[in-house]
Write a structure and sequence with these properties.
The chain has 53 residues and is mainly alpha-helical. The protein has one domain. It is built from 2 helices and no strands. It starts with 12 loop residues before the first helix and ends in a 15-residue tail after the last helix.
Length: 53
């Protein structure tokens, strides 16, 4: 391939909701467990991290 990179600076809400901008995350379940331990009520930036955490 030719290689390269792409950065999307902004996108409509419908696109953001349909596409996981972080891509595949092997440790997503571990991240959820850690988030639940430190923020059990999910008050700190809900939905703004990998996988909607």
């Amino acid at each position: 391939g030719l290689g390269g990179a792409l950065v999307v600076v902004d996108a409509p809400a419908a696109i953001k909701a349909a596409v996981d901008v972080w891509g595949p995350v092997p440790a997503i379940e571990l991240m959820r467990v850690v988030k639940d331990q430190f923020d059990p009520e999910h008050r700190l930036s809900p939905g703004r991290f990998v996988g909607g955490i």
